[in-house]
Amino acid sequence: MNEYLSMFIDETREHLQAWSDGMLTLEKHADAETIATIFRAAHTIKGMAMTMGFTRMGEVT
């Protein structure tokens, strides 16, 4: 596995965890900061995917 793919996988896991944690928080109470965290995680994953050439993943809405 090349170095960039390994970094992509590691960082994606971190952002997916933030996304998951945010979703669990929303079940208890919704606030603007939690929603922003979820959107930021999704946006970052999409951007990293496009940079890596994973266009199908980057085009998910």
Automatic annotation (TrEMBL):
Pfam family name, one: Hpt
InterPro entries with a match to the protein in the record: Bact_Chemotaxis_CheA, HPT_dom_sf, Sig_transdc_His_kin_Hpt_dom
GO terms for biological process, alphabetical: phosphorelay signal transduction system
Keyword Ribonucleoprotein: no
Key words, A-Z: Phosphoprotein
HPt domain ranges (all copies): 1-61
Residues recorded as bearing Phosphohistidine in the entry: 43
Name of this protein: HPt domain-containing protein
